[in-house]
Specification:
Elements: H1 3-22, H2 26-45, H3 50-73, H4 77-90, H5 95-107, H6 111-124, H7 129-162
Helix pairs in contact: 1-2, 1-3, 2-3, 3-4, 3-5, 4-5, 5-6, 6-7
Length: 163
């Protein structure tokens, strides 16, 4: 297979992964995305013409973002974070992968880092409803956490009064 054929095969695998994702077949989606990555990384490693390398990198970012979506559905947050980071190594300004990083940080309990990353995304795209929703969820969880701490302290005070 020449570089162009390898590239096309990678795109075919990505599209097959997308179809599997739409059907809810997450293992098949991940398998197709994995094969797509193998093909497209090969193209990138062959030192192709700049045009092919750029197209390959665009596809790689899409695949990593698609993998993030699958992994998020499966709640595999450390892998979401790792995969989103790989996408951002290729395209540091990609908002979708940056959003996934923020989402993963939030689910893994690093609320401060999640807020930082999500607010950066919101600055660049103030109308992004998913980011606003994620920040609202974090705020809601923060509030619940503060209420639990407050209840715990009041419980300690009540026990001291009884003693």
């Amino acid at each position: 297979m020449n570089s162009e054929e390898t590239f096309k095969k990678g795109v075919e695998y990505r599209e097959a992964g997308n179809e599997a994702f739409k059907k809810g077949d997450y293992p098949a989606a991940l398998s197709n995305y994995y094969h797509a990555l193998l093909h497209l990384r090969t193209v990138g490693g062959l030192q192709p013409a700049n045009d092919l390398k750029e197209r390959s990198n665009e596809q790689l970012v899409k695949i990593y973002n698609n993998q993030c979506a699958v992994l998020a559905k499966q709640e595999k947050w450390p892998r979401v974070l790792d995969t989103a980071t790989k996408a951002r190594e290729i395209d540091a300004e990609n908002l979708k992968s940056k959003f996934r990083q923020g989402q993963a940080y939030a689910r893994m309990g690093d609320v401060d880092k999640a807020k930082e990353v999500l607010n950066e995304v919101l600055q660049k795209d103030p109308k992004d409803a998913a980011v606003k929703q994620e920040l609202a969820l974090i705020k809601q969880q923060d509030k619940k956490g503060q209420e639990q701490v407050k209840k715990a302290y009041w419980g300690m005070f009540d026990q001291q009064k009884k003693a």
